[in-house]
Amino acid sequence: LEGSMSLVSVEPYRVEMSRSDGEYRIYLMVFESDRLPQTWVDGVNENANEVWTTHQWLKACFMASGIQVPISIVPIGTEVPNLNPPWHLSPPPSSRRSSSSFASIFGASKNPAFTFLALANAQPRKALAQQIESFIASFGANNQTVALRLHAKWGDHGELQDIRGLAGGASNVKVTQGTLGRMEMDALWGESDAVLALSKGEGWGQVPREALAMG
Length: 215
What we know:
The chain has 8 helices and 8 strands; from the N terminus they run E-E-H-E-H-E-H-H-E-H-E-H-E-H-E-H. By secondary structure, the protein is an alpha/beta fold.
């Protein structure tokens, strides 16, 4: 292809970015709805050369909504750490709470508190604020035997402010934001005892898939 090619992982309401001359643009779209609003459809048809999605059901929904550019199915891949032996084939003993063997596999320093992990972008539908509120209501804001660890790659500014405000008054809640490298992600998994995935809408979420793949 002449010119440039771009692969844009996009939510439909962000499709208004105009395509430059000579650019071949592919939108990777995963949206859990049986129809798309017409404004989103118009933006895709105007600015994308083709669309990639993860399942035949979504392809049918996009076509029924009026997407006219070619649509291809590209299944989501799930990457787990390159462990020797692999965690999902030879998990640490169930007594890891005392031995911290799980954390040591990932190079993490295990928090002695039982740690819940929530990985999600800071958006209202991900319900991170409600998770913090529920955690504090259930366990208290200074209970050192249990902890809540939240990480968001990115998020809406107002939502991030609300989450940080709620977490600020709790010594057992930690919130971080930003892009993590592979080793940093592995260490984050290694800190956790249980994974939370309480989104209000998540047809194709990666976090539950990764948690299951990790054992």
